[in-house]
């Protein structure tokens, strides 16, 4: 059996869609389907009910799902442990975070979380969708991400434990030296130059909600798009346009940025951590104890 088969199966179990799961795993759909079939042949049972849409697991598939995740975690943990130099071994935790939190919050968090606990960290940064997929597939031990009631992270609370770490305010900003040129909601005759998040990103959807919740007609022209808040911040600092930034990103240049609203155009996001309740990693248990204090 190939470890890739387990990762593929968990991706299908999470998405309920072969095409999307294959894309998440960077595989062609035919190759991806063959690997799922190989796993089923090795086990001697059908794991996927292909007679319905969206795709769902068979009874055997549901039973195998939790076991597959635990097997995968154990194998990855063992590989990490065996590969380390004996004198340098520390219990490793694999963390998945969106880029904004990874660059803006994690360094300070990690100093506090790891103090006196002999932990090492393998960081897996990415967008919210990819980091959630990493947790479900067993590729990481813990996920830290943004959360909002209108854009919830759909993880089964019976399977995944959750702790709230704090909040982040997502606000529109402009560079201080050009802030007087920009005001919300913008003018149809002279739309605001908008530095936007790429379509489908979590922060992009939150900006859309902020604009919708304002109750005003917003006039802007997107002139640049990126998945990464850090990129939008740097462009904002040049005076190029307006961008919505979370606190963790804006605070690193707060003396050169000006918020353009009085909270009417802002959104408050929770920052939450998730772990699989079935993950018995000693390192994860120590880390979870630290963040739960």
TrEMBL record:
InterPro entries: LysR_HTH_N, LysR_subst-bd, WH-like_DNA-bd_sf, WH_DNA-bd_sf. Pfam families: HTH_1, LysR_substrate. Transmembrane segments: none annotated. GO terms for molecular function: DNA-binding transcription factor activity; transcription cis-regulatory region binding. PANTHER family: HTH-TYPE TRANSCRIPTIONAL REGULATOR (PTHR30126), HTH-TYPE TRANSCRIPTIONAL REGULATOR YJIE (PTHR30126:SF2). Belongs to the LysR transcriptional regulatory family. This is LysR family transcriptional regulator.
